[in-house]
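4.2 Preliminary Data

To establish feasibility before requesting continued support, the project team ran the inverse folding procedure on a target of 387 residues. The structure was first converted into the token representation described in Section 3, and no sequence information of any kind was made available to the design step. The complete token record follows.
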């Protein structure tokens, strides 16, 4: 889930036993450093909802020949909570004070349903502990509210409040299905919300009530989720979408009524959502020089009158081709289409070769089983009132 030039890397796809995770995480973090980027790296933590909201009920409804495959997936993904917390704390010790100053480690419970199995009280108490310890990323989509109401009889936001997880160190992603009372709680607790409009539209999750959130005083940042959920990593397009999506009907302006509002979501509030607000997010004495340099001539040519403010020209008209340089902590890491630290062409060729590798027989069998499993997943969620 990327925000601005500092991505929040929610990493939930470690392979193999937990003893191998540290090295996998190290390679991922080092890749960001090799490019020169900042990164807030957050391993997803979960103790339930590995295949569906209720794994046992889901597996029980499967055809017999696919049951064992589903159970093997659950077993492979099941790691005790204590071991996950120890892993995240070890990552913190190793990386959080990295001399580059470009790495943060955060704690990221992977969704309220994923921390709420048979051990729901223990899981959410653990979530609350981590929320007090650091920034906690909590992602919420269309049917999470329905899940919370069925499980606890309250909204997901109220449940987080009840266990002490709503704090100013908490960042919630998406927040599409929040009520008036939820928004009041988020504002009172000074919780940051990251708005991901293109991802939510692509997945049919709905449109977050950004007007109500901002008018109530909730700090709202702007994110792009990930390429697999919004098709690209184009922050400029995300800015333009956010600017136009929240216009009110009838001619009245919304809470996102100027390009300056959008830029604030991307910069100042965005920096807070990643935990780097003490170093970046604005151009000011004592902050590090994180900059994106745009060629104004590349987007001014669309014919906008010159009296239109520059911020509005950027939000409405700038495209990725306008980016001439990216600067992190005063270092130019991208200039005129080329990365300065790495050979991106070599990286692309290596990735293309990996993706072109034929599947093994075992991988083909797993892919066929996974395709069958997908139909059961869709059927399971038919009764949850979401998409």
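Position-by-position output of the design step:
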């Amino acid at each position: 889930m990327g925000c601005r030039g500092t991505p929040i890397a929610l990493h939930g796809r470690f392979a193999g036993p937990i003893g191998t995770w540290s090295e996998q995480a190290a390679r991922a973090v080092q890749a960001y450093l090799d490019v020169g980027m900042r990164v807030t790296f957050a391993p997803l933590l979960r103790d339930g909802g590995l295949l569906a909201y209720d794994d046992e009920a889901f597996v029980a409804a499967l055809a017999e020949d696919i049951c064992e495959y589903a159970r093997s997936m659950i077993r492979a993904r099941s790691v005790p909570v204590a071991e996950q917390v120890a892993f995240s704390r070890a990552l913190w010790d190793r990386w959080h004070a990295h001399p580059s100053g470009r790495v943060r480690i955060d704690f990221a419970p992977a969704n309220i349903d994923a921390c709420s199995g048979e051990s729901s009280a223990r899981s959410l108490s653990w979530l609350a502990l981590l929320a007090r310890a650091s920034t906690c990323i909590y992602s919420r989509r269309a049917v999470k509210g329905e899940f919370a109401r069925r499980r606890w009889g309250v909204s997901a936001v109220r449940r987080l409040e009840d266990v002490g997880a709503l704090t100013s160190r908490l960042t919630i992603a998406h927040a599409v299905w929040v009520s008036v009372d939820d928004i009041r709680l988020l504002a009172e607790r000074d919780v940051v919300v990251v708005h991901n409009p293109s991802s939510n539209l692509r997945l049919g999750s709905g449109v977050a009530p950004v007007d109500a959130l901002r008018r109530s005083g909730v700090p709202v940042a702007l994110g792009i989720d990930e390429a697999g959920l919004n098709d690209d990593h184009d922050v400029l397009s995300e800015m333009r979408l956010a600017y136009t999506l929240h216009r009110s009907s009838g001619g009245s302006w919304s809470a996102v009524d100027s390009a300056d509002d959008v830029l604030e979501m991307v910069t100042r509030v965005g920096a807070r959502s990643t935990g780097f607000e003490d170093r970046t997010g604005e151009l000011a004495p004592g902050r590090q020089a994180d900059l994106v340099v745009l060629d104004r001539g590349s987007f001014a040519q669309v014919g906008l009158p010159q009296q239109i403010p520059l911020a509005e020209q950027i939000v409405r008209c700038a495209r990725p081709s306008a980016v001439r340089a990216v600067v992190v902590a005063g270092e130019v890491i991208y200039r005129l289409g080329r990365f300065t630290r790495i050979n991106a062409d070599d990286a692309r060729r290596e990735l293309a070769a990996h993706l072109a590798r034929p599947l093994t027989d075992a991988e083909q069998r797993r892919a066929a089983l996974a395709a069958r499993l997908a139909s059961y997943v869709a059927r399971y969620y038919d009764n949850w009132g979401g998409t």
